[in-house]
Design brief:
The structure is a homodimer. Chain A is of the alpha/beta class. Chain A has helices spanning 20-30, 49-63, 79-88, 98-108, 125-139, 164-175, 186-191, 196-199, 212-222, 231-247, 260-270, and strands at 7-14, 36-43, 71-74, 92-95, 154-158, 179-183, 205-209, 252-254.
Chain lengths: 278, 278
């Protein structure tokens, strides 16, 4: 059999702050090259020249035995620090910052703060809103506080283990959206009807569905060989849940082949959500 | 008093997938311009020409009364779709994708998949690891399962409401790290010692500290006028917790002026964490 040699590359995400933006951008761009395995390292908080030289040491040590050049994604703001890394690293240097800042300064007619530490700061009012939303999602997880779901921006419903909680937490953490969830339970199937407190706020309710086989696998990990996890029960629950959601004309999304990011994005599109809209 | 006119701008994040990368990059770049208020909208899933024209309609409708041009951050992969938006939108068009992909294709000697939908896909093994880690963080929240913290990659300790849970969830969701947390409680202060099960795994333990005034404000919201939330109690608890962490030489970080992203980044640096390292 012909064996294909797999190319491996080191990739670095370098930043004067946490490096999360460089990492997100770089990681998603690199994932376009699925023939190559990337060893990825984030080098955060490079906010003075001494640290820049330390970063160069790290890059050098991690790549000295490699044949190929490493790739660096940078969100460094300071031009001098950026130049040090760019000139001395012997890498493909992709500057996520300078490319975008210059045309924006021109268009907006103001200088960027160029101050180090503006990104995702706690001084940003959005930050506390996000933390509050995470706490809300935890408090209103799994129908724990079903009496007052009206405080929620959105409510996710679906059978147990279909992915409601991680999706709620993602909506909270990323966007500061107060997301509660309610599990559709056997009692609801018996009643052949969703609970009244869900129906009366159904304009804010979205459903999640999932393939019964995948659900069964997920549940098996939690409760092996249980009726709860059995394929036949998972078929029954998912079909019944979809029927109840269809009955109330609740929009629902299939988690089977979609990530929580993709589902969240579709929910936001459905509620026509904008950041800072007023 | 001189009143400064605040400039407002519309900004769009457009993508053939969820738009999260475009949004993260764009949002962090725009936050460098703190004199300007940006009304931000994400337009995801633009993966054919018809949807591109629908996106143009959205942009047109949202900006028709504006004097200034909107700003568009794009991670569109398809060149034709990208050209439609770029040529017909009358906006500052910042192409996050083409700028980075071309030099990478050259350097790596392979074509990017250019396939739509490679980013953050569920086919990516990292995805299920992240979801599993979120479930782990929830299961091991607030010392709920203190008997077996050895399964955790890291354990965060600190007084109640200092920010342990959101930080654990962020580490899980963003990096797939299994993060547990244990609240330092009055019993630990009485014993003048952290519990034995924490001490014996202290190489994986990190602490969070917080300014007592900020802690008091956070706790007031949860339990108004309680001893628990009182400033004097918060001084006592934070000082005692710091003393216990110092005693065991546990590295701890101050949450007072730092975001969960910044703290997480420092923790990862401390454990020298790399994605895909092997």
């Amino acid at each position: 059999m012909l064996e294909k040699k797999i190319q491996k590359r080191k990739a670095f995400f370098i930043s004067d702050k946490t490096g999360i933006t460089a990492e997100m951008l770089g990681h998603s761009i690199l994932s376009q090259f699925d023939e190559i395995i990337f060893i990825e390292k984030t080098i955060p908080f490079i906010d003075n020249e001494e640290k820049a030289f330390n970063a160069l040491d790290t890059i050098y040590e991690m790549t000295r035995d490699d044949t190929d050049k490493p790739i660096i994604f940078s969100t460094l703001v300071d031009k001098n620090i950026s130049k040090i890394i760019q000139n001395k690293s012997n890498a493909i240097f992709l500057d996520c910052f300078q490319i975008f800042i210059a045309p924006l300064e021109k268009e907006l007619g103001v200088s960027s703060s160029h101050s180090i530490g503006k990104v995702r700061s706690v001084n940003n009012t959005g930050y506390f809103k996000r933390i509050e939303a995470v706490n809300f999602a935890l408090q209103y997880d799994d129908g724990q506080v079903s009496r007052d779901l009206s405080k929620a921006d959105i409510i996710l419903i679906g059978v147990s283990r279909c992915g409601k909680t991680p999706t709620c937490l993602f909506l909270a953490m990323q966007y500061g959206i107060k997301a509660a969830n309610y599990p559709i339970i056997p009692e609801d199937f018996l009643n052949d009807r969703l609970p009244e407190f869900i129906i009366k706020i159904k304009n804010k309710v979205f459903g999640l569905s999932i393939d019964p086989q995948q659900l069964s696998q997920i549940r098996e990990k939690r409760r092996p060989n249980s009726e709860y996890a059995s394929y036949s029960n998972c078929i029954f629950e998912t079909q019944s849940a979809n029927k109840l959601m269809n009955k109330e004309k609740i929009t629902f999304f299939d988690m089977t082949n979609q990530s929580i990011e993709e589902i969240s994005s579709q929910i936001l599109q459905n509620i026509n959500w904008n950041r800072n809209q007023f």
